[in-house]
Amino acid sequence: MKVTAIRLSFKNFVNIGPPITRQITPTLPRSFITSTPKYSNKMTIQQPKTQSQKYNPLTEITAEIGGQANVDQLHKKSRDFRSDTLTLPTDAQLLYSLKATRGDSVYEEDPATIALEERVAKLTGKEAAMFAVSGTMTNQLAIRTHMKQPPHSIITDYRAHVHKMEAGGIAMFSQATTHQIFPENGLHLTAQDIEPHLQLGTNIHIAPTKLICLENTLSGMIFPQDEIVKIGKLSKKHDIQLHLDGARIWNVAADQIEKQNLNPENEDDRQTVLTELLEPFDTASLCLSKGLGAPIGSILVGPKEFIEKAKWFKKAFGGGIRQSGNIAASSDYALTYHFPRLSQTHQLAKKLEKGLRELGVGIGAPVDTNMVFFQPDKIGLSLDSVSERLASLPKPIIVGRERVVVHHQITPEAIEDFIKCVKEMKDELKSNGQLEENDINGEAQDKLDDWNKPKGETTDAVLRKQAAFGY
C-alpha cells in the first residue's frame, strides 16, 4: 500500500486538514489482525490509558487522523447525556479496524468476525455466538428462534425494550402475544410476580407461555442476581425458555468486577463474572454499541444448535453482512479497551446524583450504573427550563428529558457544569422568593415518599406510577 494512496483517501473523502504522509501503526490487541505494511516513516499512535490510569477522552480523536469535524463532534458528545449510543469511534479504534481481515461473513469466511464471536461465547460461558448489526436484531432473532409455532406468548416487564422499543417486532416476526407485568416492588420483576401470569394449561382462549424475557440493566438499575436465579429455576420447572436482553450487561459486569476487587482488564476475570451473570439464561443479547462504544453491532449467545437456527432467520431478516471484519474488529477493540472505563461512568453518574440530591432535586430511580433520572420539579424547576438552560451554556449540555446517561466520553467537567447550572437556577428562584426551603434533604425525602407509598397489592395504574422509569 503506497503512501500516496493514503494521501488521496484523506484528501478526497475526508477533505479536512493536511494529507497524512507518515505510517500509522497502532498496537494491535488481537491475533486475527493482518500483518502491518512497511513504510519508511513511522507515526506513534497514543494507546488508551489502562484502568489504573486516568484518561482524557478528548485526546482520542485528532484533527490529523480523524479530521477537525470529528474533533469538534467529540467535544460536543463529551457533554451530550441523551444516550451511550452517541459515542464516537476513536482514532486508534478505527485504525485497528483497518487491519482486520476482510472475508465474507455470510460464507463464514471472515476470521475477524469468527474470532469476536468465539471470544464473546467464551466470556459468557455459552456454546456459540452470532454477530449482528443491532441489539434489536439479536433480541428479535432470539425470540423468533425460541418461538416454534403459534399460539404462544412471552412474559416481559412492562418497561422492557423488547416490548416497547423494538417496533412491535415480537408480534410482527414471531406472531406472539406479549404479557406485560408490573413489578410489585416498583424496581424489577420477581419470580413471585411472574408465576401467577404463566399460562400453563390447555385453555384454548389463552396463548401458552413459551418464553420469559428479562432485561439487565433496566433504567440503569441492576437486576439482583439472586432473583434472576429464582426466575431461572421457575422457567426450568415449567420447561419455559429464559432470554436476557443484556444490552447493558457489560455495566453489570463492570460493577461486579469492582465489587469483587477483580481486574476489568483481565480476560479471565471478565469471563468469571459474565459467565455467572448469564448462567441462568438459555440465550442472551449483548449490545456492543452502547456502553462499549462500538460503532455498530450486537452479539447473540446460546447453545450451538440454537445459534445455527438463528442464522437462518438472520439471513431471512436481511441481516447478513458480507465483509464484516472491520466492524467486528471495532467491537473487539471496544471490549478490550473501553470495557474497563465503565466503572468510571458509574462513578460520574453517582457524582451527578449526589450533587443533584444535595440541591434537593428528586431522583426517580436508584443509580446503580450510568443512568440518573432527575426530577427538578422537586425544587420548583421544570424539565424544559433546565434542559433549555443547560443547552444555552457557552459549552452546551444536552439531555433527553429526565434521563441522563453517562458514557465513556463524558468528562468530569460536564458533570460539574451540570450541577452548577441547576444550582444557579435554584439560587435564582430563592433570591426571587419563589423557593421555599425544605428541611428534609433529598435522600430522606425519598425514604419518606417510599414509606407513604401504598403497601401490598395495588392496581396496575398505581404500579405504573410507582415503577421506576423505563427506556
UniProtKB/TrEMBL annotation:
Composition bias type Basic and acidic residues, residue spans: 444-458
Keyword hit for NAD: no
Keyword check for RNA-binding: no
InterPro entries: ArAA_b-elim_lyase/Thr_aldolase, Low_specificity_L-TA-like, PyrdxlP-dep_Trfase, PyrdxlP-dep_Trfase_major, PyrdxlP-dep_Trfase_small
Sequence segments annotated as region (Disordered): 432-459
Keywords of the record: Lyase, Pyridoxal phosphate
One example of a Gene Ontology biological process annotation: glycine biosynthetic process
SUPFAM superfamilies attached to this UniProt entry: PLP-dependent transferases (SSF53383)
A GO molecular function held by the record: L-allo-threonine aldolase activity
Protein name as it appears in the record: Aromatic amino acid beta-eliminating lyase/threonine aldolase domain-containing protein
Family: Belongs to the threonine aldolase family.
Cofactor(s) required, per the database record: pyridoxal 5'-phosphate
Classification via Pfam families: Beta_elim_lyase
Domain Aromatic amino acid beta-eliminating lyase/threonine aldolase intervals: 80-375
GO cellular component, one term: cytosol
Transmembrane region(s): none
